[in-house]
Amino acid sequence: MAQQAVHLRAATRGSALALWQTDDVSALLAEAGRARGIDVTVEKVIVETVADARLDIPIWEMGGKGVFVKEVQAAVLDGRADLAVHSGKDLPALTPDELVLAAVPERADPRDVLVGSTLAGLPVGGLVATGSVRRRAQLAWLRPDLTFTGLRGNIATRLARADAFDAIVMAAAAVARLELDLGGRGVEVLAPAVMLPQVAQGALAVECRADDPTARELLGAIDHRPSRITVDAERAFLAELGGDCDLPAGAHATVAGEVVTLEGLLASMDGHVVLRERRTVPVAGADAAGRALARFLLDDAGGASLLTR
Fold first, then answer.
1. How many other CB atoms are there within 10 angstroms of residue 307's CB atom?
2. pLDDT tens per residue across span 149-169
3. Which of 23, 56, 78, 90 is an active site residue?
4. In the chain, N or C terminus with fewer CB closer than 10 Å?
5. What is the pLDDT of residue 2?
6. What is the phi/psi pair of residue 102, to 5°?
7. pTM greater than 0.90
8. Active site residue 90
């Protein structure tokens, strides 16, 4: 009997990291398909986003993290593609009704990495380049003497400009995935206790249309349960904060057996106020814990006052 064949079109941004991520998802789909006797092939549909084209505008001025995914999602919604591959940290907390987050493959390192110096090695008044308000606020809290400037662009572009600053901040997963040569620069991987990661950082998020049973079934085969639990809990935290909250916010969840530990953060833009809280709950209550954690920071820890500043 002839082997069943399925061809899928994957919408993706055109950066080296985005293409790597789509190739990784394609390989996972092919492997899962072979296990089921299905020949799965994936074709890339490259989408240029406004956020990729306008590097002169800070992300928070363009509408927050969703600017990296809206046009990629549109390619799925209008039928140009069957699925979309995103960096989990770029995905807004709320998914459009017509789409479903069908797969979260096994998560990579969620931590941030300081490139150019260690945190302790930065000079007094050192200049750190980052386009992330979350990273800036936490570094300002840890080192009030530091100064900051924006830095946008793909991974290679940012790394090429690193020598103009005392340090830049990148996602550890991106460095590892692209096997980047950091050129002997000082490097420090920042533990979550030092810098809480972005929601879903290090994870891939794959969406498809809610009414596409073929894509949903195939993508379901590459969904990694522990990674999905942590990402869903972190996204529930962000959703309760207000969806695509433009304040510095982060969350990090870990799974041990059937127990989830989740830590959330909300800060002022200048890093003068940093609110953190941690909860440990059974897996079944992870999403509810994410929402409760956000409500605690907003209602009990004074975070709501930051929204009006």
1. 13
2. 999 788 888 888 999 999 999
3. 90
4. N
5. 52
6. -85, -20
7. yes
8. yes
